[in-house]
Amino acid sequence: MEKSEELKEMVRGRYTQIAGQDKLQNSSSFCGEGGCGSPVTEYTVFSDNYEQIAGYVPEADLGLGCGLPTEHALIREGDTVVYLGSGAGNDCFVARSLTGETGRVIGIDFTEAMIDKARANAVKLGYSNVQFRYGDIEKMPLTSSIADVVISNCVLNLIPDKRKAFSEIFRILKPGGHFSISDVVLQGKLPDKIAEAAVMYAGCVSGALQKADYLDIIQQSGFSGIIIQKQKTVSVPEEILLQFINTAELEQMKKENTGIFSLTVYAEKPKEACGCGCGCNS
Questions:
Q1: Cα 76 to Cα 155: distance, rounded to the nearest angstrom
Q2: What domain count does the chain have?
Q3: Whether the Cβ atoms of residue 49 and residue 5 lie closer than 8 Å to each other
Q4: How many Å separate Cα 124 from the centre of its chain?
Q5: pLDDT truncated to tens, each residue of the chain (282 aa)?
Q6: Residue 279 within a domain
Q7: Domain assignment present for 96
Q8: 89 backbone φψ class: left, alpha, beta (φ>0; ψ -120 to 50)
Q9: What does pTM read for this prediction?
C-alpha cells in the first residue's frame, strides 16, 4: 500500500473511534497513544468555542476543529455551501443557519461512522437542505462549479496530497466563489520523531505544512484574493511532545522558535475562471 493510502487508512480508523465518543471524551484524549489510557489522540486544544454561535448543535460538536471558519466565510442566504471533513455535522448546521431555507449545505467525509452520525443529527433536527456524502477530498463526489462557498475546519492538514485537495476545491467552486478554511500550519522544522509519528499526524501536527508552502499551494492552484483572516498559536503540552522527543530535543525546538499555528485563510476563484474544473482561467 502506498504511503498516502496508509495515512488515509490510519486517519479513517482513528476518526471512526472518535465518532463513537462525545466532545468531553475527546477533550480528555489529548494524551498521545497510550499516554493516558486513551485509544484516540485528538488535539482538542486547537478547538474554538461555538456555544454563542447561531446554529450550534452541541450533540454534533466533537471538539475537533482548530478555528471558526463559518464566522469568516461570508455565507449569504441562498448559498450552496460545501463543507470538507464534515464529521458529526456541527459546522454544516452552523452554515445552514446562514444559508437559510433557500440555501443548501453539503458535507463531505470519508469516515462512514461520521457520515452516519451526521445524517442522524440532520434527521433529528429536521433539516432537509443539509446532506452528507461519503467521499475523498482528493476526488470529491461533486460536479464542477457547484459551490458558492467551501469551508473546512482542521481537515486539510490530514490530506496527503494538499495540491490535489486545493485543485478539487477550485473545481467545485463557481467562478467568483470563495473558501474560508481553518487549518494547522508550521513555522520551523519539527523534530523528525514528531514528524514521522503517525499518532501526531492524526492529531493534526505532523501532517501540517510550512505556512509559506501552504499559501503558495493555494496561489498555484489558481486562487486570488488570498487573505489570512485569523492566526493563533497552538501550544502542544510538553508532556505530549516528550512522548516522542527527549528534553534536549524539546529545548532545541524552543530555541529554534518552531511554531504551530491555527490559520484561517480566505481565497477566491476568479470570476473569469472557466467552469470545467481544469484550473484554467479562460
A1: 23
A2: 1
A3: no
A4: 25
A5: 466 776 666 666 676 666 666 555 444 443 333 333 333 334 444 455 566 676 766 676 666 667 788 889 999 999 999 999 998 889 999 999 999 999 999 999 988 999 999 999 999 999 999 999 999 999 999 999 999 999 998 888 888 899 999 999 999 999 999 999 998 888 887 777 676 664 554 455 656 788 999 999 999 999 999 999 999 887 777 777 788 788 888 888 888 777 788 899 999 999 988 655 555 554
A6: no
A7: yes
A8: left
A9: 0.80
Range of 247's domain? 3-268
CATH code of the domain covering residue 222: 3.40.50.150
